[in-house]
Amino acid sequence: MPSQTLPAIKLLLASAALIALPTVAHAQLLDTDWSDADEGAPAADEAPAKAKKASSRRAEIRPYIEAQQVLLADLDDGDVLTYSTIAVGVDMSVAERNAEAQVNVRYERLIGWDNDVRDQDIISGLARGSARVTRNLTIEAGAYASRATIDNRAGSAGSFVGREDNVSQVYSVYTGPSFAARVGDLSVNAAYRAGYTKVESGDVGPLPAGQRAVPTFDDSVSHAAAASVGMQPGTLPFGWAVGAGWNREDASQLDQRVDDKYARVDITVPVSPTLAVVGGVGYEDVRISERDVLRDSLGAPIVTPGGRYVTDPASPRLTVFESDGLIWDAGVMWRPSRRTSLEARYGHRYGSDTYIGSFNYTPTERMAVNVSVYDTISGFGGSLNRTLAALPTQFTTIRNPLSGDLGSCTFGNGGTTCFNNSLNSLRPVAFRSRGIQASAVTNSAGWDTGLAIGYNRNKYLTSAIGALPEMSGIIDENYYVAGYLGRDLDRRSRFETNVYGNYVDPGFTLAPDVYSVGANAAYYRQIWRGLTAGAALGIDSVKPEDTDGDVTASALLGLRYSF
């Protein structure tokens, strides 16, 4: 190999982390959401850069209290409702030499002015952080709390302003260590994550004619572990990595269990300073099982007051899905510069063809474009944990100014993370999720913008002879778009707007497709020191196919005091 091309090839492979734990090649096997792992052991020549980074250390904590008055108008029947909210929250951002974190948490008390709006307690928030314990060891953690649609057959609105039916509170947390080190020419990586997810019970409300309600996800505990060792080209004319991992989720509904173990070898063969051929082969054992439901004397499932099934602990385990054997994938990796990278792979996994890949383009520090193609199997809790762990430690939290709920996506130069795929519907069974997401983020000329477009396809995996035979093999599809625009008009005022759109095919026989679109805009003006006044307007529409839709308009006036 010509000596002048070797440094470029090393840059190509090192910058894309082709043989480290969180490679795109391992995106579905070694959980790339632990992207900090391959930076856990800085080389000696990185010390000057670390010293420069230390000069930008900062920590900001802003608690606040807020009072708002909201008006909600149904544009179809003319009904007008009003309610008040009192909220407390905190926005925190930390960027230290050995720690980074962002926390945005809000508690809101909704007070109805008439019988049509029930008093509610609403918690929403997003947190993500990492702390370097030693040169090689990092601890990561994250948390999520918001409201979500229970059943997408009854409408999947992007806004919960004034809604009670078909909405439930969702919580998810995770934590775990990651390890990265160099031993001679070898890169050694390992990571572990433990997570917990909980969904409060909620009222689905009326479903379309002919549709039977299914129980809501309750809670689950998930574990994910992975380790790899590898070497970059140099000593050998190719790079290699050997990795293994384990993913496990135990859910309380029907005692469902997802168990996935794998081991694989990956090879990277440079063909030019910017292009490499990549491939991997291994063995994987995936098993999903559940138990039956307790039944009454007539054979009907026993249901709790919250609408969930009661699991029969004495029933035998029912096999839902199993895939045991060879897995492989192959593709290319292109890295023409530090700001552009592309990887695409085709292979065989889960008993069928699989496609994974990513594209990242960062032409400036103020602009980023990302595309990802994914294929995973998990339960609801594992999926939400994985999405949460994919968040960077610095991001922009988008909230609906009228409801206070988190937006479906977070935007930042570190990437865009959308929760649409995980929160499409709170099903209590495992699923195979496949899809694509594209996003763009800019911060230029005083404007902050973010746009995400995606498609997600979930195939639900449950026993055809168990408690939910009607969900066996059901496929639902979700097309979505989310946009954000913000600008500081001057030193005291700011304008923000959000738009969203969803098209959902729930997959159930005779269940209508559901369209939902909406937009809102808000203006904020600092009155005195920490006191800010705000006004917002919004419009939201939910329309099941071939039936009348629901269009609502909302308006808000409020005050916030930040300490």
What does this structure look like?
- The protein is mostly beta strands and 563 residues long.
- The chain is built from 5 helices and 24 strands.
- The termini are far apart.
Topology record:
Elements: H1 6-16, H2 27-31, H3 47-54, E1 58-74, E2 80-95, E3 99-112, E4 120-132, E5 137-149, E6 167-183, E7 186-199, E8 219-231, E9 239-251, E10 257-270, E11 275-290, E12 318-337, E13 340-349, E14 352-364, E15 367-378, H4 380-389, E16 409-410, E17 417-418, H5 420-423, E18 430-444, E19 447-461, E20 475-488, E21 493-505, E22 514-528, E23 531-544, E24 550-562
Antiparallel strand pairs: 1-2, 1-24, 2-3, 3-4, 4-5, 5-6, 6-7, 7-8, 8-9, 9-10, 10-11, 11-12, 12-13, 13-14, 14-15, 15-18, 16-17, 18-19, 19-20, 20-21, 21-22, 22-23, 23-24
Radius of gyration: 24 Å
Structural class: mainly beta
Helix and strand run: HHHEEEEEEEEEEEEEEEHEEHEEEEEEE
Number of E-state strands: 24
Main β sheet profile: 22 strands, antiparallel, barrel
Terminal Cα span: 62 Å
Low-confidence stretches: 1-55
What fraction strand?
over 45%
Helix segment tally: 5
The level of helicity is under 10%
Q: Give the overall shape.
A: globular
For the residues shown, what is the average pLDDT?
Answer: 86
